[in-house]
Design goal:
Helix content: 10-25%
Number of strands: 36
Oligomer: single chain
Bound molecules: (2S,3S,4S,5R)-3,4,5-trihydroxy-6-oxo-oxane-2-carboxylic acid
Shape: globular
Strand content: 25-35%
Amino acid sequence: MRIKQIGLIVLMLSVFNGTLFSQDAQIINVSNRSTVSLNGYWRYIVDPYQTGFYDYRQIQRDTQTRPSTAESLFLGYKAQFPGDRVEYDFDKADNLLVPRDWNSQKENLFYYEGAIWYYKAFNYVPTSDNMRQFLYFGAVNYEAHVYLNGEKLGMHQGGFTPFNFEITGKLKPNDNFVILMVDNTRKPEAVPTINTDWWNYGGITRDVKIVEVAETFIQDYFVQLAPDNSELIQISVRLNGDEIAGQTVSIDIPEAKIKVNVVTDENGLATTQVRARKLNLWHPENPYLYDVNIVHNDNVLHDRIGFRTIKTRGSDILVNGKSVFLRGICIHEENGVRGGRAYSEEDARMLLGWAKELGCNFVRLAHYPHNENMVRIADEMGIMVWSEVPVYWTIHWENENTFNNARNQLVQMITRDKNRASVIIWSMANETPVSESRTAFLKRMIETTRSMDQVRLISAALERHTKPGTDNIQVIEDPLQEFVDVISFNQYIGWYAGLPERCATAVFEINYDKPVIISEFGGGALQGHHGSKDQMWTEEFQEHLYDETLKMLEKIPQLRGITPWILADFRSPRRTLSDIQDGWNRKGVISQTGNRKKAFYVLREYYLTKKEQFK
Ligand code: GCB
């Protein structure tokens, strides 16, 4: 039965991708494939009125049979004769670096929200004959229309997940060009919607690559321990190509002395499970990764995979059968020291290194899927991960397009990261307002998640309220609690609700025998600003708030983890207080320049104690 369900995993992916959006079925583990990087300088043209995309009657130019060469920027057209009017020229345009957001690269794009055209010319020599090529983007925020040599490949919505298009047969040895219109305009029906508490960094923010694969290739696979059995590895593999049926694929884990052959069905899918004895299990204290080779014909796709089980029992979270306390911190994908979206391996190592220094074994990657390098490095460093989609605050619960968009982002996140030992929780949403349509929406998201991944836990950051008629009894009035594995909620008693003293009298009433994670708490402090513990925005106030909050939370019997808000100060246009915020959310325990605040040390102490308690 279980094996059949695993089989469904990969099958569903291609259905979602194929029907809802125009990109091709997602290819995983791109970093271990043969690729040609298209990173580096790209020419760009700012187009706030989208003149290159719509004509003066607002007709989308790329749907016209003869789009104007003078204005259709996606054609990358060059004047052919003196009287040939062309109102743009990429060769004369300025450059932006890819991957990176545009806001932190050019002063005049700092606040820009709108369309920018990207252009990159390149030559291409295939590594060998009979290869297929895909154009892959790690992420583009928010909407991307992609063209190769003047021809539209497709479009993608959602700023934090990968997508790819097949371009086999479309490349020439010389003078290829890729053009993108990237539009980061906030829209009410989008995911996220118009209102967030983070910077809407625009641009091609992650890697761009040409992925080279064999005519029939391993598109996707799942190699993970069964949730209940640390001696059973579940495997599924999906081939893509003309000859996908009856193919032998072998899965080789040399160090574990495992080598199995599977044969694909007519859909190119193969599933099996293998006994594995005495595996060196992945754990934050022992982040052991096995070399795994998946082989089809002569093509070897390599990965490094950790094996661990994750499940709940009552209010316990069990990793490899042992109860853990999640010593966490929330992280935004931003490098404040340099400025802008985090994108590089160094960025990931800096952020996760800070978390390690704090004593963390867990991070909440807020509020959207972070770069793949984050979860891969978390695998290596032994940090468990909560990964989330940007279903944030009040999105359009009744709009089916909004749902499809959210689900598409969820599917792309799970598809990309389902082989990472570090990832233990998929989060469906953050602080969403309870209503029938909201709950129906999130239940469908949960169903999708369970159909794709039966080995991880599901949660969502909910809200707490003071129980009506009481002074300080705190309750979670949310029917979603029934459907998640872990009850998580954000709470700001002492910051948005009263002063830190209020923590002393708070009592949490949680009526489920499930683990509880406090997915956010905190308060703002400007690093270097000192005063009494009663003075807002000082490090002492924040330190005091942390002291009081931790004492309060310790009284929750089901408490199995916390992820305070937040590791480092981050940019937010909502934060306008001069001389204190200046456009930064100051709830970091580290400043954007990398300096630790007093609260950092309070948390570190607490984590030392928790580590001892849960030895
Ligand atoms: C929250 C949100 C988070 C905000 C934070 C704050 O509850 O989930 O995105 O940044 O509060 O600082 O207000």
